[in-house]
Amino acid sequence: MTKPQVIVVGAGLAGSLLAALLGQRSVKTLVLESRRDPRKHGSQGGRSINLALSTRGRTALARAGLEATVVSDGMPMAARLMHDRQGNLTRQPYAKDEQQAILSVGRSRLNATLLEAAEHTSSVEFRFQQKVTGLRDDGKAVQLGKECLEADLIVGADGAGSVVRQSLEALKCCQSVTEPLGHAYKELELPPRQGRHALDPAALHIWPRGGEMAIALPNPDGTFTGTLFFANETFDRLKNEAEARDHLQTHYHSMLQHVPDFDKQWSNNPVGFLGTLRVDQWHHGNTVLIGDAAHAIVPFYGQGMNAAFEDVRRLDELHAAGVNNLPEVLFQERKPNADAIAEMALMNFVEMRDHVGDPMFLNRKALERKLGRWIPKMFTPLYDRVSFSNQPYADALRHGKRQDQLLRRLQSLGLGR
Ligand SMILES: Cc1cc2nc3c(=O)[nH]c(=O)nc-3n(C[C@H](O)[C@H](O)[C@H](O)COP(=O)(O)OP(=O)(O)OC[C@H]3O[C@@H](n4cnc5c(N)ncnc54)[C@H](O)[C@@H]3O)c2cc1C
Prior knowledge:
Blueprint: E1 6-9, H1 13-24, E2 29-32, H2 38-41, E3 50-53, H3 55-63, H4 67-73, E4 75-77, E5 79-83, E6 89-93, E7 102-106, H5 107-120, E8 124-127, E9 134-135, E10 141-144, E11 147-150, E12 153-156, H6 163-170, E13 176-190, E14 203-208, E15 213-218, E16 224-231, H7 232-237, H8 241-251, H9 253-256, H10 262-268, E17 272-279, E18 283-284, E19 287-289, H11 292-295, H12 304-320, H13 326-355, H14 359-374, H15 382-387, H16 393-412
Parallel strand pairs: 1-2, 1-12, 2-8, 5-14, 12-19
Antiparallel strand pairs: 3-7, 4-7, 5-6, 9-10, 10-11, 13-16, 13-17, 14-15, 15-16, 18-19
Helix pairs in contact: 1-5, 1-12, 3-4, 3-12, 8-10, 12-13, 13-16
This protein binds flavin-adenine dinucleotide.
């Protein structure tokens, strides 16, 4: 390829969707990816196996003509199903319109769909096993060891450990800080039982235990992917399979009973880090960061990928419109929204782990849904704004805070009981 118009660093979820969109507009695009092609060699370990896809992600996929394909590969989840310690279940619909659902989609299949869509256009070239090592000082070329590749636009879509971001930091163009959550995660597969899903496949399952929790999302092959979210000290304290099994037996019995090979999975599956990455500037020269490279967040709102896809959609729209100084324009628009979803994801961690079993909270949620149905023009629940709309995250958060105050006031007056 002669000089590309755009270089995308990273062919993960954001990078490959961006490549597909640019390719469809015949923009000459070079994608550099450090891994081997995951379609030929399997996907990398240590990443979440499935993800909740919601409206923002779907809107971006629709722009690339891929929404229907991805949706047909996914499992709709219309509600949260809470499991208490006694094994009782409480169902909480996600949206005021109970027909609406978030979707559980497999990461590797989604990534393959995006790579294929990009490759299908004749304007995109992928180079796998090409690890970008940095940026040229002017931000107008990427370095691959001694090789230097220039482009009119360079997009750092290289994930939470982004080398592009580290390069911007080394050039004193930005500062970043990663705030650890203090909790980490471990995934467990729940196999099918008698050929069928072991739990209700139309819901996202939660075992809230105050201070820690577990969740499980369905997969089309009849399995569930469960995730344990424990404090770092708890992972440290559970020294072997027997201690871990005891912990699950005591607190997560109704999950553990569906994991027959628990000991093997506990010892084989890695513990993953969770934290919030804050970056004060995402651009320099022709370069801009998107997705986790710019704003990795904790996964409790199911929005990291959705936010990354929204970055991609806006980048493509601005590029198609021929906007001058795209890196800065994109940063100015997206940064307040990235900050807002980072805050909401942390709020949702506390909600999921501590409150979803609390009667006052459940009562407030029910009241929120009722208001959403009675006065839909005036009252849209925060979850609907975040997951079932494309309203900017910062606006959703502002409205959500105001509405929460109102709900608490109504509750204190005895309404909604
Ligand atoms: C446990 C967990 C659960 C999650 N659940 C959800 C969910 O339900 N819904 C949701 O929306 N989000 C979820 N997320 C977040 C989601 O996984 C991320 O937000 C998403 O993967 C970000 O996509 P990305 O393309 O920015 O980065 P990535 O997907 O990390 O892709 C980055 C790519 O860049 C490549 N790369 C890295 N360095 C280089 C280099 N130097 N040169 C070339 N290539 C490089 C990598 O190999 C990779 O392919 C979850 C995250 C976790 C940890």
